[in-house]
Design goal:
Elements: H1 6-31, H2 38-48, H3 56-63, H4 67-79, E1 83-87, E2 95-99, H5 101-122, H6 127-140, H7 144-148
Antiparallel strand pairs: 1-2
Helix pairs in contact: 1-5, 2-5, 3-4
């Protein structure tokens, strides 16, 4: 007879929850009709947290993806008018990425979609359970203070 593996069960629960969160967020993102992918939404949120327009290499590092992936995301967001490439004022070889007015507007709509998704996900929990979950998630999140810093 094998002994139950509590860590294996937790890992499975976390994976199932992650998949559910992604599905729900994607559905809410599609409802807002911006034509933005989840990866593009993440890039827009990251840009919004930067103190100054970052280089694409900075974004790639921050998003933990290869630079080519950022180029593809930026191309799509630029084509839809949500970001623009701007020259660095001190080094003309460097290109920086900044949000446009449409990008800021999209972020406001995306925040609404995220709040709706969070409400759906958290609906079964009481206020007290939400507080406990928030504390546990803060404990588990790796690098939360790094993510909140400017680029």
């Amino acid at each position: 007879m094998t002994t139950p593996d509590p860590d294996g069960l937790l890992a499975e629960q976390l994976l199932r929850l992650t998949r559910r969160v992604h599905r729900i967020q994607k559905r809410h993102l599609e409802r807002c009709g911006l034509g933005v992918t989840p990866a593009q939404a993440r890039l827009l949120r990251t840009l919004a947290h930067c103190d100054a327009p970052p280089r694409m290499a900075d974004l790639a590092e921050r998003l933990e993806v290869v630079p080519r992936a950022v180029t593809t995301l930026i191309d799509g967001l630029e084509a839809s008018g949500k970001v623009r490439r701007v020259p660095d004022p001190t080094n003309r070889r460097v290109i920086r990425i900044e949000l446009t007015d449409d990008g800021h507007q999209a972020l406001r709509q995306l925040r609404g979609a995220r709040v709706s998704a969070a409400q759906e996900i958290l609906a079964p929990l009481t206020g007290e359970q939400r507080e406990v979950l928030g504390g546990l998630l803060d404990t588990l999140v790796d690098g939360a203070t790094e993510w909140r810093r400017g680029c």
